Amino acid sequence: MPRLILILAIGFVVYILYRRAQGSAPEQRRAEYIKLGLGIAVLVVIGLTLTGRMHWVGAAITGLLVAARQLLPTLVRLFPMLASLRSKSGPDGKTATPASGPNMSPAEALAVLGLEEGATEEEVITAHRSMMQKNHPDRGGSDYLAAKINQAKDTLT
């Protein structure tokens, strides 16, 4: 009976945290889901360790991984040289500069922004803004895609 009450209490808390994450601002929602997922993983590891189904070394490694995930931004601020270790490559393994080089054709630029031939400058700016909101690196997007989108706008304006 105490186990059932504990499981129900944990389920209720997870449900409340999930609803809170859903109600957060769209740009913070992903971070809230990651925190919720990490919290659930920690609870599962603690439960498995306490019931003897997981060795304490596995629990310690899991704890170190969670701590490293939380401390990474601080370590990058304290040691800027660590920032250079981050991969800045695009999907094809090349650097973050667009694959088409410095000169993008207008047809390719229209395709990147999802526009038709003869689009006005206002439509280009609107499409650029919309694409950047979805693909900006500060919001979890790709450096490569952001560079392509910016280059497409520069080509068309």
What does it look like?
By secondary structure, this protein is mainly α. The chain has 2 domains: 2-85; 106-156, DnaJ domain (Helix Hairpins, Orthogonal Bundle). The chain is built from 6 helices and no strands. α5 (121-135) packs antiparallel against α6. It is elongated.
How many alpha or pi helices? 6
Give the rounded overall mean pLDDT: 79
Instruction: State the separation between the terminal residues, measured CA to CA.
Output: 68 Å
Strand residue percentage: under 5%
Measured as a percent range, the helix fraction is 55-70%
Tell how many strands the DSSP assignment holds.
Answer: 0
Note the run of SSEs as H and E.
HHHHHH
State the low-pLDDT regions, or none: 87-100
- Biggest β-sheet: count, sense, barrel? none
Structural class: mainly alpha
Return the domain count: 2
Q: What is the rounded Rg?
A: 22 Å
Overall shape: it is elongated
How do you describe this structure in short?
The protein has 157 residues and is mostly helical. The chain has two domains: 2-85; 106-156, DnaJ domain (Helix Hairpins).
Question: Helix and strand layout, with pairings?
Answer:
Elements: H1 2-23, H2 26-50, H3 56-78, H4 106-113, H5 121-135, H6 143-156
Helix pairs in contact: 1-2, 2-3, 4-6, 5-6
Descriptors for this entry?
mainly alpha, 6 helices, Helix Hairpins
